[in-house]
């Protein structure tokens, strides 16, 4: 049997490290295999070399961290204008500084941290962040960019430590660090005011913490074990608090936890009390603690954003009543709805608005030529309606008549206050939505016909209950046709003033389209109460915020001519995303991964599936493998399996999403594929060295292979550096040209009105040339297209 070579996992590096927690790689292969591998290793480190092992590891970690920070903070101030989604997340940071309420489809933690970084660095929240390309001028933006770059820089040492813990191999960890350091995509994404570096920071921190507490399994309930288990929970809360895709790392940690508990349950040396303690510890640290922290972020979010702002209209009337500056804040109105009240009726669906009518009629050929009824997002006198009994024209506000409250199940009429026409429906088809009925304003001075009658129902209430302003969720059922009043959300043409269509749907399924609530309420015969009494509780506010965010995410559909990408584009680096470069005076920044890194990652996934399958089948069939090979195979299957699972968890769910997708959504998965690449190639090279042990140069195969990969990645990273170097477009152009013998992989042409995406042609060498004169590899320079 050939001896192990390369001084790697099969030898000294498989020994459990001295300390309170053992290495996960050593636990993976088992003590017998590790001992046998050590005995067979021809080179055992001398005591003097062991003395320098730990300082060497720390020195390499310091070098990796230094390189990471140097690349991420290089020219951080350029370009000095808004790039891509900085217009959204920088603006949201300003909202936190100004305490102005806004709406976003993502949880609040990432934006809160951006706002905090801006506040601490002297930014006063006055910059408008209107559109990409706007100059920052005298405003302090480096604090927010620097915060994102700081978290983005920590990704590389986190990945280094994770792979080191899984494999106990410094070359594997260094290779992983090099892949991420010299990837232009990771570099670019880390240098701007975005949520992505914050999200990836918490994902990688959760992964590292999970791997660390796994390695402490031989010392359960020790201080390091509790520390890493608690940090895992903290980082899970952080990942979910930035974006909902943080759920993917929660699923991965959950799978690891269930597997771990199942293994403990099968360990007959442990009592059921001990197993119960393990279960309780994980429930506390991985469920209770993350939920408490996640809830706390919303408590801070709602406490800070207490002023009315652009997000008001997305939320219910009761929610708006808590916002200072909103017309419902500190208002006093009657609590229960009564006949004769003047009201506004607001849709429960996000961004639909108020039931509205005006004096304009539907045009010829659009149902009956009667008064239009729409929904309108803004406050307006045409939103006012008078609620009346269906069978009498007497004035309910007559002082001689007693107050009569509207109750669940009553049949009513809604009379438009400005035009005195009743809310009406009939069997004519709606303007835009097929198989729905038209809703109109009909009658003269409140006198119409039986098609004006509606039954008012409160969702999940019993007949006879009073209807509360703001709090009761109501539906209006047309008495004659049996249809339900609702808004389709479709925008009417110009004849409808581009307001939203209101229909009466014969489908009685309870949806947000057909649920309304009463917001404004005027009735001089009723006593007013403060709306503070009607304000929702914190659990109700948090639930509503999540419902609105989920609906907002589901509503993110591609618009006409909007550039998007598909998940299958991402691993092959098919096309990138323009961050900056709209005109000749702009800096050009383009989000595109280093093709060498990305295609190596893709190749590594395929090789891992092949090699992992071979080893899994061999071990399952009871094949007797050499101790060195068996040790490497266990690390490959267990450590690599966790990384492959992470890649799959963060990639494949996007195929199931109906929302709009962009290239940057792949980067969390790319982190896992890069870690898998580092671990895989280290093991493959060790196996090659072991198989060639009879040759004189076998001992150098692993070293030369790792060095070649490191130098190749660094060289190609330097070649692709112009993608993220923020070069002024007016002075220099990035031209990707073809030589006579090597056709170009990407072609990029700049236009004055549109920056076109690079199109994949065919695999070949890419030679970026920064030139302000004619390039040697092009027959003529790149010109601007005039459109």
From TrEMBL:
GO terms for molecular function: dolichyl-phosphate-mannose-protein mannosyltransferase activity. Pfam families: MIR (PF02815), PMT (PF02366), PMT_4TMC (PF16192). Residues 334-390, 403-459, 464-521 form the MIR domain. Coiled coil: none annotated. Residues 1-10 have a biased composition (Gly residues). The gene is POMT2. One of its GO terms (cellular component) is endoplasmic reticulum membrane. It is an enzyme of class 2 (transferase). It is a multi-pass membrane protein. This is Dolichyl-phosphate-mannose--protein mannosyltransferase. It comes from Phocoena sinus. Keywords: Endoplasmic reticulum, Glycosyltransferase, Membrane, Repeat, Transferase, Transmembrane, Transmembrane helix. Its EC number is 2.4.1.109. It is found in: Endoplasmic reticulum membrane. It catalyses: a di-trans,poly-cis-dolichyl beta-D-mannosyl phosphate + L-seryl-[protein] = 3-O-(alpha-D-mannosyl)-L-seryl-[protein] + a di-trans,poly-cis-dolichyl phosphate + H(+); a di-trans,poly-cis-dolichyl beta-D-mannosyl phosphate + L-threonyl-[protein] = 3-O-(alpha-D-mannosyl)-L-threonyl-[protein] + a di-trans,poly-cis-dolichyl phosphate + H(+). Belongs to the glycosyltransferase 39 family.
